[in-house]
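Checklist before submission:
- one chain only
- standard amino acids only
- sequence pasted in full

Submission:
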Amino acid sequence: MNEDLLAQNEGQMDNKQADEAQTDQETTQPSSSRPTYVWPIVIMVGLVIVATAAVFLDRQVGGGRLFSFRPVRIAFMSDRDGNWEIYLMDREGNDLTNLTNDPGNDGIPLHAANQDRLAFASDRGSTGLDLFLINLDGSNVTKISEAPDSVNIPISWSPDGKYVAVNSDQSGANAIWLIEIDGEESINLTERDNVRQFGDWSSSSDSFILATDSAVGMTLFITNLAGDETQLLTDGSYPAGGAQWSADGQKVTFMATAPEGGPIDIYVLDVKENAPVNLTQSPANDTFPHWSPDGSKIAFISDRDGNFEIYVMNADGSNPTNLTNNPAPDSVQGDFAWSPDGAQILFHTDRDGDIEVYLMNADGSNPVNLSNSPGTDFGAIWIK
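Returned file contents:
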């Protein structure tokens, strides 16, 4: 969660929840003296990063089921075999496959719809974290980050499959970069636009939402690949983050603290009208909004019942409903994802004693532990 938002709400959360919730892309990046502890950084940022990555597939497929020759699967990272690997399974938790199967540590899988490969981070052969591609059958592992021993943590993959956004120190300082998958172009967005956080791609992949520093936190804006077209979404008078486009590209939802202060709420705005509307208006913290694939609902994280749970509401803010309703914190970093058909939600929880990948119906019924391992399992995304 964004530090700027949570700093104003520390007193409203217990110490454990606040510690978990204050992770963001900037503060969890390693320093230049990193070699002995690079991989534990993945544990700190992976839950946030996967929340950003998983929404792209949901948005591209829209409502209803897709007709495809490839069944829907789930990718996740686990240390069940003694080091971090990326695994694949079906949506029932069966047909488990160790995809990466390497002595190095591999994690933070990303996928773009209709791609036959994953992007991921790995420390294999490096004192840093490099960005790799791998086919969904485990073949053709290819490194695409070039700076030796730099730390490259994948954030999101463009819907057209051409670019991966990464948090990288390849230039000597932490920055948000776009790396061209099958080409040579790399764009330092932090240097170009003073970017602190990558938000979301448009469905056409020609523009994206970014967050830049302002006097009170972060300001959201839309820009394009060339950087020559910019539209402000928020005016910088209040901290905002966690932005996501609706499937039709007409609206943006995000989390923010109101200009007069108070808890974190979920907002929505029409891109053309640019007038934010507070959907939640709750005395609790409501964070990490995720549009349903058909755009009719928004799922989010809230501590309004005393601990962080996954809620869902109609797109106009009506009928908020607690889906998880469990004493354990569930996906506190926003690391949950609608299934491509909108029928189910992937999430992570430690309700069984360690972090596991769970799946529930979109109405909260039938929560099932899919990973069911004594190890730590998280970073789950849908593969379609």
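Reviewer check: Residues 3-383 form a domain with the Neuraminidase fold (CATH 2.120.10.30).
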